[in-house]
Structures
1.
Amino acid sequence: MISTRKKLLAASIAALLSQAGMNSLQAQEVIDEMVVTTVRMSEPLLVETDPRKPRQPLPAHDGADFLKTIPGFSVIRKGGADGDPVFRGMAGSRLSLQVDGESVLGGCGHRMDPPTAYIFPEAFESIQVIKGPQSVQHGPGNAAGVVKFERNRTRVTEPTVAIHTSALGASFGRHDEVLDASYKTPEFTVRAIGTNAAQNNYKDGDGTEVHSNYQRWSTQLSAAWTPTDTQFYEITAGRSDGEAAYADRGMDGSLFEREHYGFKGSIDNVSTLVSNIEFQYYYQYIDHVMDNYSLRTRPAGVTERAMNPDRETRGGKFAVTLQPFAGLTWVMGMDAQGNKHSDRSSMNMAMTDYRNLLRKRDAEFSQTGAFTEVSWDYNTTQTLSAGVRADRWSAKDHRSMVMLTHMMTLPNPTTGMKRDDTLTSAFVRLESQLGDMPGTVYVGVGHNERFPDYWELISKESAATTSAFNSTDPEKLTQLDAGYIYNRGNLRGSFSVFYNEIKDYILIDSAFRKPAAMMGMTRVATIARNVDARSWGAEADFTYGFADNWRAELTLASVRGENKTDNRTLAQLPPLEARLGVHYDNQTWSFGTLLRAIGSQDRVDIGRGNIAGQDFSATNSANVLSINAGWKPAARWMVTAGVDNALDKTYAEHISRAGTDVAGYTQIARVNEPGRTLWMKAQFTF
Ligand SMILES: [Cu+2]
């Protein structure tokens, strides 16, 4: 009986889909939108978006906010910029970030600078997200997924000047400027990219000013040599800096300086067997300062304090792609990365300026990995992909002392200790067309082992001692990913689900009571400890062209989790979220509305979470309405404008951080999202 009903349901869905498929509107027209409000899954587990397209809601000029338009992503808000991206409830190094193939790690022990704080999305031409542990060739540790920021490389046939420039103005004194200029000949390319962005404090829907101003700039120069159609060699150098006020803590970021140098090469069609060889080397240095005096008024009686961590990272990659026969792509290679972290700080700048102190090394990490990945179209409708990688990790704790508070420092129980581990990751996935049903279905299983990061080993205590360095075990995730992508005529959509079991999930517990130095007293410590956990969820997107030039869009994202060891919900999970949009777009004019409905979240585990945030209360639901319009008078010109949070709703993301008391500001319970925001952006490309 049940199976008959299922068959009937399947048949009626198929009928509905094929009827929709007969509509004349072309799918391509449906998605070439002027203002991006949602990003769809285009291939199994792959989401791709153009960071140069205007998007709504207006993102901060950093990598995290740009990801928010992708269903399943959310951002832990601390102020106006530098939020921590979270995908499927997983934050920090569970989500791997690759910038032009380089892995970026922030310097701040208090997580002021997630990797995305150093990413200027408009300096790139593509953002790709591979969901789940379903790839092994883009570095280690991508439990939740990997995000890649990439530039395009096309060889021209005659000398060409290419320019992309944009300017944006918005409420709260926001302005962004981007210039990307290159001169290309068939053999050589020189390219310069500069970005600048600033914003004053924004106000939430109630008009409460949030300590959130920021300013940031970046420059990048690159020179490429393309002696033939199949060879590409490039050297790159870049610098960026910024400052950002935070509404959730007692200090602001007054320096986010990054310097990077890289060399990259790629050779195609080396032989009939070898279709590509690529290699890369990079160096980057991050210098970060946080203090309580540059961007805020210091409370009376508190000394001027500053901390100045830095991190130096070197890395490289070598990979060979083979095509032994048509339909089989086989990649194998190695990647390595090493980084050194140091710190210096002053709790009384009047007495000792931190700039006069020596930097003290506190930690060193290194990783070397080998990987192999195959993708085989073994018949016209099915593809089998699989991969395996092994990583050798080592870490060393150089700290002689552990700083528990600004006032209390104790000897480090793990000083001088070194730890090593060999971790493995693997996946297998089948993608298939479904007989007469249009679209692709996929199912995959992945396993990912993640070495604890700096924030889990060095910045935290353990349950037993003041250092988590030798007690935090690597995290082991095994995940099932499945989904369906439909794309025909005027209807396109995708549905993806996942379920995982995580052994030794690294939980950050910020409410752990420990005996204090004074007999009989206790203190609250933030510790890292391993628990067993599981999480599951789904994302869906639907786009329906219901009339010429009109389309409706719906996306859904949901995640749940369980901390099995403590028998509680997993902390820091965003609530159910839906986005509904209706858009008109005739390629010259466009306008659209976006309704974002955020569910309430009462599944919380107070005091627990990840390196970027902890649960502190439940949140209510919210509906946020935004509208946008676009005008493309010529192929090269585009002007777009929008009103985000048009009804001036006061709301906060569930995973945003708690507000703190900043002198001169009303303290907010949670770092609220901006109130009504008007914006306008003009861009010119040729
Ligand atoms: Cu910091």
2.
Amino acid sequence: MLIVPLETPRLVLRRFSQEDLKDFFSYACHPQVGPCAGWKPHFSISESRQILKSFIERDEVWAITLKSTGALIGSIGLHKDDGRSVSVKRVRSMGYALSAAHWGNGYATEAARRVLRYVFSEMENPPEMISICHKDFNTRSRRVINKCGFKFEGVIRKAYEDPWFGVTDRWSYSMTGREWLQTVSADQQSL
Ligand SMILES: CC(C)(COP(=O)(O)OP(=O)(O)OC[C@H]1O[C@@H](n2cnc3c(N)ncnc32)[C@H](O)[C@@H]1OP(=O)(O)O)[C@@H](O)C(=O)NCCC(=O)NCCS
């Protein structure tokens, strides 16, 4: 099982449940959240119900909740990387999205760092590498990725075409277990 409960100073990452439906819909319908991550804003609560069902069944997405209130504020997942032909045993691709009302508080970075720690120091049979990517204009996500210490791989020009942003480039990054250890020890030395 991939999705186990994880804690950070301000967050609890846990499995999604049916009870999350209303709160999930309320951020997933926001026009600025999904398109940046490549999915269309949810149009109806029944659409959110379907996606929530797949989150629960597929065991690869954590609900991001606030420790102080228990409120659901987003999701973070480790998926098959469609840009590589290797299996999830070797590489998993990280993706995240947060309710727009909670952007800019460092929550995505806190959640992503905790998931990396889980993968590379706590998980049984971890993947060899975590990959991540963002659309060229997504400076917020770029910043999260840089703060986590991912290595820049390069840019695939004209990688995406969608109704919201037209044609955009994909910036790709990754991190191996060894690189994660180097990042963590560099962070400790700078304290
Ligand atoms: C990307 C996303 C998850 C970031 O979440 P977050 O909790 O706001 O991220 P953090 O607060 O940890 O970090 C955001 C960083 O971007 C910076 N930032 C905020 N607005 C910015 C802007 N307009 N331009 C550049 N940087 C910006 C913040 O200052 C912060 O950096 P800092 O810590 O150096 O100050 C969130 O914006 C989101 O859900 N976006 C929509 C979905 C999405 O894009 N998912 C990722 C797909 S790759």
